[in-house]
């Protein structure tokens, strides 16, 4: 009986010692444990609704037309749409007030777009191509002109909820008689992403 008690006591002591050693190993820091190991920065997800404002510049070299534009946009992104997490599908609509006009004061009063977006997420940044339907109104026109738009841009999240973007679009509203029917735009914008939350890094 004394022998069995001694063996049991020795076994228990060994288990406690091994458990203590493993616990110390888990918390020994940079030497190989997990307590003070490398901190991984949180990575944004692009999935969700967003809305924002933008301002920019538009021009048509052939018609010697240019001017300031400004407006707003709303859209939705879906990251991992094809089962690969860096790929982002999206849809966006925007409307812009416009001061694009030529020397004859032929002016584009406003225009808007409804576009698809296909992007590739690089952490907190998104590079994308975009294209779709466009519409607008020119001074003196008796109808809304329609056409298409294509372009691309880059967007960066500096907080989980806020992002800035820079974008180029070529737009052709070809079903009208204006010399400004096709034009280029560059713009910068600020978006607010609804429901976005940050991720705490593992410490």
TrEMBL record:
Residues 1-19 form the signal peptide. It is found in: Cell outer membrane. Belongs to the Omp25/RopB family. Its main location: membrane. Residues 43-194 form the Outer membrane protein beta-barrel domain. Keywords: Cell outer membrane, Membrane, Signal. InterPro entries: Beta-barrel_OMP, OMP-like, OMP/PagP_B-barrel. It comes from Rhodomicrobium vannielii (strain ATCC 17100 / DSM 162 / LMG 4299 / NCIMB 10020 / ATH 3.1.1). This is Porin. GO terms for cellular component: cell outer membrane.
């Amino acid at each position: 009986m004394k022998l069995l008690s001694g063996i049991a006591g020795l076994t228990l002591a060994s288990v406690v010692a091994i458990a203590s050693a493993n616990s110390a190993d888990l918390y020994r820091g940079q030497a190989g444990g997990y307590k003070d190991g490398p901190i991984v920065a949180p990575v944004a997800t692009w999935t969700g609704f967003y809305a924002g404002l933008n301002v920019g510049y538009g021009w048509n070299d052939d018609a010697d037309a240019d001017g300031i534009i400004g407006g707003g946009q709303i859209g939705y992104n879906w990251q991992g749409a094809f089962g690969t997490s860096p790929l982002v599908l999206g849809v966006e609509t925007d409307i812009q007030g416009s001061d694009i006009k030529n020397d004859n004061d032929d002016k584009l009063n406003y225009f808007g777009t409804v576009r698809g977006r296909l992007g590739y997420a690089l952490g907190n940044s998104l590079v994308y191509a975009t294209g779709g339907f466009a519409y607008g109104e020119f001074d003196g026109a008796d109808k809304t002109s329609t056409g298409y738009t294509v372009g691309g841009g880059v967007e960066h999240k500096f907080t989980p909820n806020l992002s800035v973007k820079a974008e180029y679009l070529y737009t052709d509203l070809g079903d009208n008689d204006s010399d400004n029917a096709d034009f280029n735009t560059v713009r910068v914008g600020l978006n607010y992403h609804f429901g976005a939350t940050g991720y705490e890094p593992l410490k």
